# Entry
Amino acid sequence: MERALKDSESRFRRVVESNILAIFLWEPDGRIDEANDEMLKMFDYTREDLAAGRLNWRRMTPPEWDATDARALASFMAGKTLPPPDASESNMKVFLTGATGYIGSSVAERLQQSGHIVLGLARNAAAAEKLTAKGMVPQMGGLLDRAALTAAASAADAVIHAASTNDAGAPVADRVAIEALLEVLRGSSKPLIYTSGVWVLGNTGDYLGDEDTPLDPLPMVAWRVPVELLVLASAAERVCSAVIRPAIVHGRAGGIPAMMLASAKAHGAVQYVGDGSQRWPAVHIDDLADLYLRILTGAGAGTLWHAAHGPSTTAREIAVAVSQVAGFGGKADPWPLEEARRQLGSFADALALDQQVSGKRAERLLGWRPVGRSPIEEITLGSYAE
# Structure
């Protein structure tokens, strides 16, 4: 027996040394620590690249591969054993709240493009029909329906929470939903992505905010912070949890630019809150959907990600672009903050935030490569101009 083991080891060493196989050792975050010459040759890297830490498995492979890697790693960390290969692992059932919404519908489409099955939360029969028409599997219930949420999460391989009631009841609904989801996800090693937003950072001014920036949330979103912490802390209870903070989302004729355009057409004028010098960080909806997929299939547990791309654009520049598309020749007027508050409430303070936000962590660690138009280009040349 001992002789057979030694012979087997000797044969394996000869294969490795002859570089017939590409062999490497990588960390949970994808960083490759060691590789043989065939591996380096295959991907056109050098020993110097290896020593400098430039090799990362997650950046060298398409996001569709990450599902198998992530699930195998979660299984290994939980039980110290690797599951047998299974071609079906890359096709997950993902329970998605907000599947009919602006962000959620785009995320659902991206998931389906990658072969995943989307179980979408539906408040009523009309929403269920929409989900069915788009190839999703409706799960009847709302954000306050704990039984519906736990049943759907139990049936799924992963959960993405992208819904909000967008009213005064949002803080309670969000907390109830997350607590219900965690009730069944604890100990499962299943992924959970919670959608927050960059407004929890508050004003950043000339500072480029990242995931380590101290929080100074506006009152209207302050309730998101303890929910973020609850989700991130669940990593210690074997939930592959992550929080994503999108910047101002644009594209597909939706989001805040669409609200400004509709208001301009209804009232015959384009306005911006304050003096318009405040900077708005942004992310294109298609790039955001791609980042959700990359987090789902490639991020570690207890991780935080900013979804922002490119330099921030001033509110005045956005308003001028909307004015051009609305047929007002680029004319836009300032709206004093106090007056805006009387009509918009605390939302006016959000529109007055001056922020610069970096999404470089996702680019560096997940291989995220945003390619969507900038806000100005999308407004004047893209979906808002159609």
In short: Residues 201 and 213 are 7 Å apart (CA to CA). The mean pLDDT is 88. The longest helix spans residues 63-79. The first strand starts at residue 24 and ends at 26.
